[in-house]
Pentatricopeptide repeat-containing protein
Amino acid sequence: MFDEITERNPFVWTSMIHGYVEILSIRKPFLSSGICVSEIIISSILKAFGRLKWSRDGEAVFGFIWKCGFGFDLIVLNSVIDCFMRCGEVDCARRLFDSMDEKNVVSWTSVICGYVRKGGMVEARNLLEAMPSKDMAAWNVMISGYTDVRTAKFLFQAMPICDTGTWNLMISGYCKVGELEKTKGYFEQMPRWNVVLWTMMMDGNVKSGKVHEARCLFNEMSEKNLITWSTVISGYAKNGKPSAALESFKNFRKQSLELDETFMLRVISACSQLAIVDLSQ
């Protein structure tokens, strides 16, 4: 539920942190209680430990896993790998992975993802090559790990099939380095477009000072959201076009979209830099 919340206020964060603290405070009584547990409960505990990067009680937890008979449970072992990786225990995760008689796509992807997080792209690539059945998640994790989009391109070209996430990664990568022609090429090759990609293309043009091109993309869009509108408004403001920014904001107010804090902060921040008083007010 927490992962699905887009606007996380202090209350939400406090509740989440409090929940994690409670998990840590009851871990020892729980582990020694003798209560009947399932692989789901064990996996949830490991997930919490991984997110908190809490590896101090690893031996107790893993001893408990074997005691409960989950030492060969694939779901639990995958959770252990993920926990190790998130805690920075890459070698432990790899040893466990190598010792497993049974592995599935989640096992492989967890280790690849762990290496990518730590910048171990060579190890991650070697694992991807050895992976018997490569899924989209593994491919996308690898592409996301390359800081040089030109290197990622070769992996992209080797993929048998791409999904929206793959296209997003490539377009985002070229936008970041300002290669808008390459970005446009990927954008036009896509089988279908969504509002995220349109907005990404707009943002890339805005950052390169090509406000007119960004506006043309905006006009072509059949669906627009708050991020889209804030991109075009702040884009005009940041590129010294206060009148166009104000006019776009007036057009936005005619829509049925509701303002939120993120939208207002982004627009006000952009406009205040140029002292666009009318729009900031």
The two ends are 36 Å apart (CA to CA).
